[in-house]
Amino acid sequence: MKQRWLVVVVGLPALLAVLLACPAWATMIVVCGIAGIAAYELLHTAGENVPANFYWGLVTTVVMQEIWLFKEEMSGTYDLPISTVTIFRWILVMMAFLFAVISYGKEKPFTFHDVAVSIVGGIVFPAMYSCIFLLRMDENFGKLYVLAPFCVAFVGDALSMYFGMWFGKRKMAPHVSPHKTWAGAIGGPIGSALALVLLGVVGKAWLGYAPNYLMLILVGVVANIFGQLGDLSMSLVKREAGIKDYSHLFLTHGGMLDRFDSTLFIAPVVWAAVCGGLL
Fold this sequence. Notes:
Elements: H1 2-21, H2 24-46, H3 52-75, H4 84-103, H5 112-136, H6 142-145, H7 148-167, E1 171-173, E2 177-181, H8 182-207, H9 213-241, H10 256-259, H11 261-275
Antiparallel strand pairs: 1-2
Helix pairs in contact: 2-3, 2-5, 3-4, 3-5, 4-5, 5-11, 7-8, 7-9, 7-11, 8-9, 9-11
């Protein structure tokens, strides 16, 4: 229990300091760390026969995707006729299939399963996590928007847990996540909607933000539903691998994917809402 509180007391203020007190590039660096470690954890957990040098190639590709996406978004131009990020993604896919072809027929081949896991961790993860720093880059309300995915995730998870404790009887997906209940699944969207409404109130007083409370409630509910899918999806990978946590990076809180699994699915929803003018 002391370790859990240590992570919260140290980690939360540090995260808030980066998101709110530092320039947008600092948020990009944090996202590089989250996406890179998450990709490594997924490959380590779900991969079958992945050579050690491939891990570092994948993590490097993930980090370079985030850096160049940030650079291109800041400048508003591409260094090449197409986005450099697209090139990095193409390189990763080609690298994965090359490993598969070269190792086929050997004692421990790099299977198509490994190729698929590499594409999810090396392309899908950074694309989804990058929405966090894209939210921070908004010129007017970046400091407000970047908090939204975390508010949706953390408050939604908290109320989901309490609803499950108070009213939970029917299991939601017992073979994937034994502790999740339908009551908790209802409490989560309520908590996320309330969190975004409160964030709107704070934004109005802090930055002059003009909140549309109905849209905040709607986005909170929808984003939380996707977040629950993210939570269950990453739990499914752990169940198939027969492990409890992806790593012990955050001590008893588990690894990066244990802490930022729902945020992975929530951030793109919030970013789409901001781009669509809903928030």
